[in-house]
Write a structure and sequence with these properties.
single chain; about 290 residues; mainly beta; Immunoglobulin-like; six-stranded mixed beta sheet
């Protein structure tokens, strides 16, 4: 059921791609707050969550293209997702299961989320599986969180992934990676500067490189296939200075092999005494 539900989202997003592109074009010409509704929510207070899902303006309307955004995500075990009500003057819920099902709300249930600024509900996914959820007030609104226990350990990092070493681009548009250093203590406060470099098919073809600074924690980085307007961009974190970063990669296409190089280039602003780096492999199929 979960696979067919996810396939439904893929088909829906493909059919409505022109509408989505138009909407995103409008968003890029408006305020940062409006843009944040569709991903980065940097104006929100810091909360102890990894990933932000937005309940978008107009979500209560049946004609709205979106309700929960993103509607389908893949994350590693241990990810805390925060749903933020960005729909003015409209209460909503985040309720596990399908509308009307006997087990509706058995795993998580936000209750009524008030139509107030920064109203949010969060839940930590501590086991693998596919978790469908809906809004009890607007039961025609359904979304899914797919959770994977896949990990890969190097000499200096352990990487957890929402899809594992093979990313099926036809089934999943996005996957969250968690880069956790195993040789550096995570105290929640000391600034750690990560550099992530991605090569496609061979190390001579570098397609992305960027540094990210995190306060004494692992680096959550979501990979998104396609890229807006066929361009690559990175943004985040989801909250004021915490939460996931996101990479929309126009280069994530077709059947390909990627090398993802993770490195800590600074600890509290200073280079580490010994090099802290690992390479990880990712294969895409379409």
């Amino acid at each position: 059921m979960a696979d067919s539900f996810r396939a439904y989202f893929v088909l829906t997003l493909l059919v409505t791609s022109i509408v989505v592109t138009t909407a995103l074009t409008l968003l890029t010409t408006t305020t940062a707050t409006t843009t944040d509704v569709y991903g980065q929510m940097a104006t929100l207070q810091n909360i102890k969550a990894t990933y932000a899902v937005s309940i978008v303006p107009g979500a209560a309307q049946k004609t709205s293209l979106l309700h929960y955004y993103p509607p389908a995500i893949t994350v590693p075990v241990g990810t805390t997702v925060a749903w933020v009500n960005n729909d003015p003057e409209q209460p909503h819920t985040v309720t596990s299961g399908l509308p009307g099902a006997s087990n509706s709300g058995a795993i998580f249930n936000s209750g009524i989320m008030p139509a107030a600024a920064n109203s949010f509900f969060q839940y930590t996914f501590n086991r693998a599986g596919d978790f469908v959820y809906h809004c009890e007030i607007h039961p025609y609104r359904i979304a899914i969180v797919s959770v994977s226990a896949a990990t890969e350990k190097g000499n200096n990092f352990e990487v957890a992934s929402g899809v594992g070493p093979t990313w099926n681009l036809t089934k999943d548009f996005r996957t969250l990676l968690d880069f956790a250093p195993v040789t550096v203590p995570l105290d929640g406060s000391t600034p750690l500067t990560y550099n992530v470099t991605i090569f496609k098919n061979n190390t001579a073809n570098k397609v992305f490189s960027k540094t990210f600074t995190v306060n004494g924690d692992k680096l959550p980085l979501e990979l998104i296939a396609g890229g807006y307007a066929n361009q690559t961009r990175a943004y985040g974190p989801d909250f004021s200075s915490t939460g996931a970063y996101h990479l929309e990669g126009a280069f994530f296409k077709g059947n390909a092999n990627y090398i993802i190089k993770a490195e800590i280039t600074a600890i509290n602003g200073k280079p580490p005494l010994n090099k802290i780096t690992d390479n990880f492999s990712l294969h895409t199929i379409a």
